[in-house]
């Protein structure tokens, strides 16, 4: 069941991405000849009223939407017929290329919202449960069961408000409630290199309060999660690169399959969480300005428009060759890493 759920997650993400391309192609009156989930000889297919062939193929490593004329888009005398990709205006091409990633990120946000709304948002009271050794908190006599009322003159209602109020300040002003007595503490924090910020050195051990069906908080948390996820991922990759452990952290389809039994894919939360993480990755990865990815195509078409669609054939060949080289290298490296080191 775990591997079936994993396969369904892959298929769902591919479908959403390709459907974004398909939908905007249809909005701009481009003819879509094929919509395929997976690669290889189709195991199931049908043709709709718009003459689009919808396929399910046995190799679930991606998919594609084939728009009329797209296969000749890099040729000088490409198809300019009505309904072809080349007949579209630049902004229409960009919208079509962006749509796949936007749909992935949007679907991840919807899934996040549903988790927060239906499963609830866990919050903790601002009560100190642990004071870490050799921390700024210990050195300045913060104690277990102290209730934090404000941080830097910002009122604190739950534990997660503390880092928000602190931001990345080096100094902190705390107002505490200790056994009914108000105590003010002002001191300098210690810098934590692992998370790249100043920390107090406290945590909470209180039981979480689960807040379900809260529309405003669900919207706020789901919207805040995505930029926070990308920021944390970027910092993690930077740290892995600095520590020379980046190769150990990368995982492709084979690596994900090998780790499937550790992802709680037998539970709905685990399935949804994996869907969110991969959707956000696919969404941003396809927008990277790497030749042959959606982001690379956008850059190519913009440059081509600047040169009145008359780029030298050599430039186009270099673009295609560079894209194939980069993508092939990444696929081989990650797959080799998955097989032999995961």
Overall description:
The protein has 342 residues and is of the alpha+beta class. It has 2 domains: 204 residues, no CATH class; 89 residues, PDZ domain (Pdz3 Domain, Roll), CATH 2.30.42.10. The strands form 5 sheets. A 4-stranded mixed sheet has the order 2-3-1-4, covered by helices on one side. The chain is built from 10 helices and 14 strands.
| Mean of residue pLDDT values | 85
* Number of spatially distinct domains: 2
Strand order of the largest sheet: 2-3-1-4
> Could you tell me the radius of gyration in angstroms?
25 Å
* Overall 3D form: elongated
For the termini, the CA-CA separation is 22 Å
In DSSP terms (H or I, runs of 4 or more residues), the helix count works out at: 10
Low-confidence stretches: none
Helix and strand pattern: HEEEEHEEHEEHEEEEEEHHHHHH
The total count of strands amounts to 14
Oligomer: single chain
Report the biggest beta sheet as strand number plus sense, adding barrel if it closes. Answer: 4 strands, mixed
Determine the structural class based on helices, strands and strand pairing: alpha+beta
* Percent in helix: 40-55%
* Percent of residues in beta strands: 15-25%
């Amino acid at each position: 069941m775990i591997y079936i759920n994993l396969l369904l997650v892959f298929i769902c993400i591919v479908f959403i991405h390709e459907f974004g391309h398909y939908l905007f192609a249809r909005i701009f009156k481009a003819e879509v000849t094929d919509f395929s989930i997976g690669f290889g000889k189709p195991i199931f297919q049908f043709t709709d009223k718009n003459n689009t062939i919808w396929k399910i193929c046995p190799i679930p490593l991606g998919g594609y939407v084939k728009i009329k004329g797209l296969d000749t888009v890099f040729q000088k005398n490409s198809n300019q017929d009505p309904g072809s990709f080349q007949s579209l205006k630049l902004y229409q091409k960009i919208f079509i290329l962006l749509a796949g990633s936007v749909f992935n990120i949007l679907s991840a946000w919807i899934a996040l919202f549903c988790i927060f709304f239906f499963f609830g948002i866990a919050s903790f009271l601002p009560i100190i449960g642990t004071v870490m050794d050799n921390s700024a908190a210990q050195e300045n006599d913060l104690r277990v069961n102290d209730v934090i009322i404000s941080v830097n003159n910002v009122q604190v209602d739950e534990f997660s408000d503390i880092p928000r109020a602190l931001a990345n300040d080096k100094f902190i002003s705390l107002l505490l409630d200790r056994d009914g007595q108000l105590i003010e503490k002002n001191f300098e924090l210690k810098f934590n290199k692992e998370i790249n910020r100043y920390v107090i050195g406290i945590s909470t051990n209180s039981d979480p309060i689960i807040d379900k069906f809260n529309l405003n908080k669900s919207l706020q948390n789901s919207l805040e999660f995505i930029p926070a996820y990308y920021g944390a991922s970027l910092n993690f990759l930077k740290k892995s690169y600095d520590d020379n452990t980046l190769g150990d952290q990368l995982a492709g389809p084979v690596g994900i399959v090998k780790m499937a039994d550790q992802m709680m894919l037998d539970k709905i939360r685990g399935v949804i969480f994996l869907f969110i993480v991969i959707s956000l990755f696919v969404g941003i990865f396809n927008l990277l300005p790497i030749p042959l990815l959606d982001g690379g195509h956008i850059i190519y078409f913009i440059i081509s428009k600047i040169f009145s669609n008359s780029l030298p054939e050599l430039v186009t060949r270099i673009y295609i060759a560079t894209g194939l080289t980069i993508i092939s290298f990444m696929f081989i490296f990650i797959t080799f890493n998955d097989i032999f080191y995961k």
